[in-house]
Amino acid sequence: MGNQAKVGVTVLAVLASLLLARAPGLAQVRFQQRQRLRPLDYSRLAPMLGFEMRPRANIPGGWTGGPTGAIFADSQVVHSGHWSVRLERKSASRQNYTTLMKIIPIEFAGTTIELRGFLRTEDVENFSGLWMREDAESVSLGFDNMQSRQLKGTTPWTEYSIKLHLHPQARRLRFGVIQSGTGKTWADDLQLLVDGRPVWEAPREPLKTGLELDHDFDAGSGISISELSAVQVEDLALLGRVWGFLKYYDSAVTEGRRHWDYDLFRVMPQVLQARNRDEADAALVQWITSLGEAPTCAGCATLLETDLSFGPDIAWIQQTSQLRPELSRILQTIRDNRLPGEQFYVSKVPGVGNASFDHELAYTNVKFPDAGYQLLALFRFWNVVEYWSPDRDLVGTQWNGVLTEFIPRFALAKDENSYKRELLALLTTLGDGHANLWGALDARPPVGKCEIPVDVRFVENKPLITGFRSNHPDDLGRLRIGDVITKLDGTPVAKLVESWKPYYSASNDAARLLAISHTLTRGACGETKITVRRHARRGRRKLKVNRVPSEGLKEAEKSHDLPGPAFRLLSNDVAYLKISTAKVSDARRYIENAAGTKGLILDIRDYPSEFMVFALGSLLVESETPFARVTQGDLANPGAFHWAAPISLHPASPHYPGKIVVLVDETSVSAAEYAALAFRSAPKAIVVGSTTAGADGNVSTLPLPGGLHTMISGVGVFYPDKTPTQRVGIVPNIQVTPTIAGIREQRDEVLEEALRQILGAQIPASEIAKLANPQSWTEVHF
Q: Which of 394, 450, 519, 725 satisfies CB 3.0 to 4.6 Å to 547 for a cystine?
């Protein structure tokens, strides 16, 4: 990407996907996930185009872009008004380009769209310019970035203009300012014109989609199922697969012309009434034919093998031993005549590349039981995994069996709670800690609005009381920190846990037990019996305690880093930084204050407060250091995932030359895992602790019928050598897990091992224990 001959190609690539500007991780979702483009009051663009909106984080209000640290709201150099925008690139700036960007829906009519504005440059190395791109659902229809005008060097304020033909299929407009190479570019007083008039004066022409035109099943699917035969289950499984294939491959659906959920309800009764597979296939053929003949495309999509991680699992459409030849032929024709990248129900999040599930409705008013909507939830999620999960290959061939297994469970769920329970069980089969029934977790067993007011952590695979969440002794009975819970209401905890596991979605056992620990004591309010083991030699104690309302309790302990400020000195030789409260703006000062120490402990046994990967990671490396690779879905070939280029840390000052010890455990999830992945790439870094949660990658949110929603990990995250992290987690160099004895003695055995790694094994255990005690630390104020 570095040489000038490739500039034209790479600008398009950067504007299409700013993948390397940001890195995957749950923390990024809040900032980068594209929101649905709703009807826009275009007149509100006026102050934004003039850069007069209040800046946010030093970037002009209303705008986005990257890389971080290269875009600034400027009040000193302006063309008019109080503010302009400045793009400033130095030799150490990340990426080859700096791009200021705004995305708006195209809900106006016209012939020509024009972006006009004033630019000023200073020592620009390659070029600067206005840029604009109009897109269909996912295909670029027009683009200009002024590269051919070679605006570079130093120039005074000058007005420039770029124009595009307003394509009738265009749905989104992306525009802004771009700079290639070092130097500074200022922009001010932009105008967005349609046929020479401000965009807010252009006639409005909103697109009518199948979702807006079709209301046949707003009041319910009308499908009721009391029992299912084995033949019906197999036929419904085929329907679910065909429906999902057409959703992402057939132009009638990918262009938004059909309300695809409602089309499912139209064909499902015919499939249920079929007496055999031939009749079911015939019903599907008749249904697909009614959608219209697949158009023959001039520039059909093709699957590129370049950097292919895995391809679509659609060989089944060619298996005439399982499908009637006519049905197989129709499906293959649709596959071969698909358009490149044209999708209605899914797009890719700018800057990251994970799937954004657009136009999926949550149907908050559906009344349960409703077998049609319940099966819709199953089919929707199953096909999202089939075509848009980067970790589908980890599930293996059993994913087909999951669909067949859950069809009767969903179809026959008798009420809303049963439906939620089946959803929880379905999500668990994926083995993705991001895939949970968020907002409805209280449907997991054990159910109840009360709990014993204690913090529980599984230590040595046993549920250990680690703290209290109530100040009322009557609630706590005679429980003590360090008690191992062996029975609840007379039932062994081990037996309860095994029965609950199928409803707790997680990527590995450590993360699953962590989730169960948060709900272990939940149940009916009032007095309950609990059996604990306090000391091995003294046997078990049977106690009576009160379950109290969860709402009145202190927040449960969900992290294992240490209380107090983000940065402290444990001694003159050891610095400590916990990422859960660290700030990007203070990254350099953390390193400055750690100067002269032998080692820096980075505690990631919690979720990061901010995305610290590049701000802090760049201060830990001496040269460009690749630390991750990701895989992204292919809109033109749903079900295919390709490798993106390696993601690297680039060195910056001040550099920390000492040893780095990264602390992790089962509470380290998603963005925390991504940070650990980056920090361990430093030349003197090691990871200490226990395996992380194994759920990394920006999340993609999926609505589900009943006002529910789940998520999946939207991009695959790997080490640079393509070793996976999903399900595996970040495996420490040195495995250290807390012990029951250590918890009872209120020791942090993971931190103690980190100290030994920095100071040496010869340091007395008493000295290590003293340094690990937060009361002995030196607080550093900024």
A: 450
